[in-house]
TrEMBL record, chains A, B, C, D:
<keyword id="KW-0560">Oxidoreductase</keyword>
<dbReference type="GO" id="GO:0009229">
    <property type="term" value="P:thiamine diphosphate biosynthetic process"/>
</dbReference>
<feature type="domain" description="FAD dependent oxidoreductase">
    <location>
        <begin position="5"/>
        <end position="350"/>
    </location>
</feature>
<comment type="pathway">
    <text>Cofactor biosynthesis; thiamine diphosphate biosynthesis.</text>
</comment>
<dbReference type="Pfam" id="PF01266">
    <property type="entry name" value="DAO"/>
</dbReference>
<dbReference type="GO" id="GO:0050660">
    <property type="term" value="F:flavin adenine dinucleotide binding"/>
</dbReference>
<protein>
    <recommendedName>
        <fullName>glycine oxidase</fullName>
        <ecNumber>1.4.3.19</ecNumber>
    </recommendedName>
</protein>
<dbReference type="InterPro" id="IPR012727">
    <property type="entry name" value="Gly_oxidase_ThiO"/>
</dbReference>
<dbReference type="GO" id="GO:0009228">
    <property type="term" value="P:thiamine biosynthetic process"/>
</dbReference>
<dbReference type="GO" id="GO:0043799">
    <property type="term" value="F:glycine oxidase activity"/>
</dbReference>
<dbReference type="InterPro" id="IPR036188">
    <property type="entry name" value="FAD/NAD-bd_sf"/>
</dbReference>
<dbReference type="GO" id="GO:0005737">
    <property type="term" value="C:cytoplasm"/>
</dbReference>
<dbReference type="InterPro" id="IPR006076">
    <property type="entry name" value="FAD-dep_OxRdtase"/>
</dbReference>
<keyword id="KW-0784">Thiamine biosynthesis</keyword>
Length: 376, 376, 376, 376
């Protein structure tokens, strides 16, 4: 019988970040991963740190995202020192493109309140745009320039958290799917898996789209649902643009090795594996519409992932009310990469008994209360 | 709400075979597959139809295997006509190799009782062997020649069952993982999945190594456990041998396109993904020991799969005693490909209300009774 | 020094077919392949046997194609017997789709002369079409029904020729790129390769798009040029259509395992590796235009190949005039799979000293004579 | 007609490094690559910067290697600044393992002369070894500790050179294989390729194992020959060792993401594609012999590459005597990654008309002179 202090269920970027921060605090942590560490939504992500690009109004969700975004420059150094892995933090910023008048108007309004809360969000006319990114199509009418919304390599971030926790003495078990949660006297007594059983003091559920069915094994209801996303990548030999380009139909994220990630469709409650022909068609059409010169880019890979959605668009961060030692960190939807450091650090604080006020709006107890994320 | 007649949980070769035979009878069947049809153990198999090669003594298991083996020649024609897919049934037979005196003795005894029950099982001396398969190493001391133990393409067999059932009007849903089984009045009322809910008349559980945890959702205990197997394949340009070569440490299965499958390790209760370096080392060493000329063969692929084992080595075939409409067909261990036709046909009969006497020894109710498989 | 009777330079479908027929006649043949047997254009092909679908007027090219097409039913049996590999000949026929009035008119004319030369080529109205293939879009206005234009698995055909020649005693050497052709007294005396030198009696050049640069090593000029083609494939669970659908912008070739191949772009003199984003966009758009239900098909693979083109659109089949023992079989453009049996058999006859009248119009000596292929 | 200043034939690490340093100097450079940039030997390499580990005696080759090794720390910073790509320079050093008395003796002698020329090379007893790297097998009898022999990511280095040259305005053309070199009045007038023709002022031949056959097109003889190398990699979750372990039968190179590269076999004049079963067997056996705990490592990939060897073991660096504008940089055998910066910088100097004294011993004119590399 294995008796770590904490078992984290789920080896995606959220689970690994939590385990990493816990291990830094000295806890003996084991991460249980159904398949391979980082294989699912965390590797499917494009790595955008978009705290501003998708938010329609201010609120605690934006605050959380901004707080997490601010952690990346130091985190990059920390993980590089510890593991030798560079998470490829790219500070070139983002452009939220408008393809017509209506979008221009909406984005200019968005820029306004973002500047009011102290963030940079300047409106760029078509002329300014073309000067900065000459490969943009003349169909693009203008853009909100968001220099703070940067990006990293999502697979490298997950990998670096995982390597870091191993180097610091934590454990990760791959191929361990949970087959039962034994509850006794109001707490999870045992986590049963295909790779043996565990009796930790505390359990963190960070299983992405599988959160709901694992929670159910302990009699806990968490309405996390899957939102399938399809992406593809191309290789360009000459660098065509430097900033992340976020349009109404797709986004384009340039990577240092010449890769451009084109993402992403959204299909609610679709868990079918693989990329559809329609997804490919949509993504390729939208990419060419934004940057026509991508036509000669070399297709590299296509993939799908399943984002964990929640009814009100907010993540669940905190202890479940039914059980005294079961915590949840899930439902990050499209913001798992961005929110991983703040989630990891905060959950480590929570498990250590500290108060984490910034998590209050995201309590799993909030039930069906209609708080809205401001995302869209 | 979907209301097929039958839901089959599991889209491996067993689930697809059952659904195929049910569809042929006219039932409206839906197969629910967690990932992709045929992606797991069914594709990992080498496709041997070894009814004799691994059995140490006679009994109902051998009888079932022989019955299933006899179905293949007709099945090949039937599936080819219907789907256009050839399952590549290869009738060249098998050699059970002995590397020392002790093994020679054991195999000669095995040959004896097999001949007594009417099967071909001739002992071949080293001289006879070399004449038939000159690429065999001189380390091989003799072999039991089993012309009836033939082989097919495992991925093609699964695919052909799946295509067949689609052509006949059945359905397969990929990416559908079961999240709950709702039981009411002694029967499964609803199968809840990530891809919607189903209310079928009858449910068949054919989920391989995941059988245990799905059964548990309905309160049923089925002690199926995983036995991981690692394999690799090489391509040879010149055909080195024609028969399947089954040695004490590995087997070599030649395919018509020049592929030779080298299998397989056995690791009980290991669900870690991927192939270990030790597995690679063992398989390559044993392959070269049997056929030294394989040294120049081109490595092609390495993979692992998880065979569903059972405590007494026998599959579970039949209705579970706790619920009136839940059937199980699992625990086929290393014989899933071989047993798929007899399992599919028999289960279709059972669900139609017929008696299937040959399944009696494999009742899921047998509990911990120590019947032994005779395998080893 | 290796001294086979014949060296065939090029291990694609043409080279393997020639070597196969030569080996059947008893010649000692070695095929030299730069990479792996069948890795290039032969595996990239969709496998259509389109003798009628693309031809605009009658002539020797159509005759050659029809002659080759007629060889496939027997060839399938022959290769299956010998190798155990089924080339998956599918006799469901082809539909040449018209998307507007102009195309309808042209195709009806094409049907007329094809019927005059004795081939089946019936015009189907939209109503007839929908009855036969209900998944077709209502954008399709009609089609020429070509039941004789069937299809096979291109990779399996190449593989089967290669296995067949090995079984019959021929040799294939992979990774052997030609570094020089030593000419003495009007003949090729030695073929120098990265894998050793050869002094055969006769040399056949069947190197696809590399034909030109190999020929040049012997001082022979053959204006074969590359025409890049991009394709993709999707998997559909339910069979959506049975015939090959050939539209003005792409074609859809259904395979027995549920694969649908969508091909192909044409880029002259483009030898860049890989599939462009524009290619993906075009193919996905055209596929959805013909069969909207393909939208849910699962993308499987994308790939590119290089077809060997010639200035007049006709292949080169015969001896080169400059050297007494150098033969060429190249420039098959989009018809390599279709023409492989007639090319293989005819070249084997030629090398044996027989007359092959049907090859006269394709003599490599024809130079820049403007014979046209009638393809388009 | 394209008229760059310089055409570099070959897009491996050597060609890209040369083009990078030339572009930095302001030259207009085009790299012609037969397949994809960095696809061949450069990606197959393990990335060791072994200036000391394999040399048996001092000389100009060791000096060149040491000079190049010293360039890496600055180069890492330079490429990271310019491209955002980290080449993952790992300074943990190397251990040259001795498995018996004879090897211990030889390595201690090697350490002596290396210390005499000012390099660190300390002998470590078994006790010291186990303290530093406790995962080493007790079969290891001692080791030469070489803290200066570090390592990088070979694919990232090549990629970073390629990205760098693009960012600085250079060009790379993929899929461009050379079909002819037109020589006029003692110089290469035109480089003919499958992707068009070029008339540069200067031509650099850096085509690795294809150098010989391209040189021949210009009538130049360069006896570069292929030495095939097979490798594999495994993933380990816990870091087992930190230094590169170089044993008599294989080497183990640990990467920051948990990958361990196991290399490499040597097969002279073997250009067959792919990894043999024997290669797999050897590498897995030797790896387990050095670090038994690797047995549970997850096999990740196997691959082969072709190192460009030369008769005397030294690279060719300089102008060929026959032609006034043709330079060669090839024959780096196992030291292409290590020697890429010094080769790139030196060749850029040479083409600019400067003297490069350290290249004198490596002149392509040295012919069959028996200078020895000291490698072995």
């Amino acid at each position: 019988m294995n008796k770590p202090d904490v078992v984290v269920i789920g080896g995606g970027v959220i689970g690994c970040a939590i385990a990493y921060y816990l291990t830094k605090r000295g806890a003996r942590v084991t991460v249980l991963e159904r398949d391979r560490i980082g294989d699912h939504a965390s590797s499917a992500a494009a790595g955008m740190l978009g705290a501003q690009v998708e938010t329609s109004f201010p609120g605690p969700m934006v605050d959380l995202c901004l707080a997490s975004r601010r952690m990346f420059p130091d985190l990059q150094q920390e993980l590089l020192q510890l593991t030798g892995l560079d998470i490829e933090w790219n500070s070139a910023g983002m452009l939220r493109l408008a393809m017509d008048e209506r979008e221009s108007g909406e984005l200019q309004q968005r820029g306004e309140w973002q500047r009011e809360i102290g963030e940079k969000a300047e409106w760029w006319s078509q002329e300014q745009l073309i000067q900065s990114e000459p490969a943009l199509s003349s169909e693009v009418k203008g853009a909100l320039h968001l220099p703070g919304d940067t990006q990293v390599s999502a697979p490298r971030l997950t990998r670096a958290f995982a390597r870091g926790l191993h180097i610091l003495g934590g454990k990760g078990v791959e191929g361990a799917f949970v087959t039962g949660l034994r509850v006794e006297r109001g707490r999870v007594k045992e986590v049963e898996t295909s790779a043996g059983s565990y009796r930790p003091e505390q359990v963190v559920l960070a299983a992405g789209v599988w959160t709901r069915s694992v929670a159910r094994m302990a009699g806990v209801s968490l309405p996390v649902f899957p939102v399938k996303g399809e992406s593809l990548s191309v290789q360009v030999s000459e660098p065509l643009f430097r900033k992340t380009l976020f349009g109404p139909g797709a986004y384009l994220v340039p990577k240092p090795d010449g890769q451009v990630i084109v993402g992403a469709t959204e299909r609610e409650n679709d868990t079918s594996p693989g990329v559809t022909l329609e997804g490919l068609h949509r993504l390729s059409r939208e990419a060419l519409r934004m940057v026509p010169e991508l036509s000669g880019g070399n297709w590299e890979r296509s993939w799908a992932g399943f984002r964990p959605g929640s009814p009100d668009g907010l993540p669940y961060l905190g202890r479940v009310k039914e059980l005294s030692n079961l915590y949840v960190a899930s439902g990050h939807f499209r913001n798992g990469i961005l929110l991983s450091p703040v989630t990891g650090r905060g959950m480590a604080d929570l498990l250590a008994g500290l108060e984490v006020p910034e998590f209050h709006p995201f309590s799993p107890e909030r039930g069906e209360r209609v708080t809205q994320s401001g995302w869209g």
